[in-house]
Amino acid sequence: MKEQNEQKLLNVMDRIIHNCALVIAFIMVLVIIWGVADILYVLYHRLIAPPVMLLEIKDIFATFGAFMAVLIAIEIYHNLILYTKGDHNPRLAVEIVLATALMAAARKVIIFDFNEMEAAYIYATAAVILALGLAYYLIVILPNRASRIIAEESNRPE
């Protein structure tokens, strides 16, 4: 009887977590829409400012940074959706988290103002990107390559 009650409680808590993840995913969709609208708004105002229809390099980098922020939000949304599915693949979740972290680090590098950065900050960012890239290679690229080779060999006529 005690195990049944515990299982019922766990089921209720799982439903609560599931619903919370859905609410967060919905909010993330709103943030993504808001981010796209913000990109369009900022681009419009920068393009109509003199000189008309010209963007300075800092405007282009700011736009790239905004694009990356929206892409990161989309990746986070995908990760949330994985958690709402009862049979989510933990390996896929790790792959998405690594890809999101790499994208966030790349965004940071894109918007760096190297005139304002200390060397230690740049080296630390490089170390983080190197570690994330290595982890992504070991966890995503190598296993995918190995499974592709195995599939090709099993389909090869003898």
Helix count from the secondary structure assignment: 4
Report the average pLDDT across residues. Answer: 86
Number of DSSP E strands: 0
C-alpha Rg, in Å? 22 Å
Portion of residues in helices? over 70%
Q: What low-confidence regions span 5 or more consecutive residues with pLDDT below 50?
A: none
How do the SSEs run, as a string of H and E? HHHH
- Please give the largest β-sheet: none
Describe this structure in words.
This protein has 158 residues and is mainly alpha-helical. Helix content is 84%, strand content 0%. It contains 4 helices and no strands. The chain has helices at residues 2-48, 57-84, 90-110, 119-155. The termini are far apart.
SSE blueprint and pairings:
Elements: H1 2-48, H2 57-84, H3 90-110, H4 119-155
Task: Quickly list its features.
mainly alpha; single chain
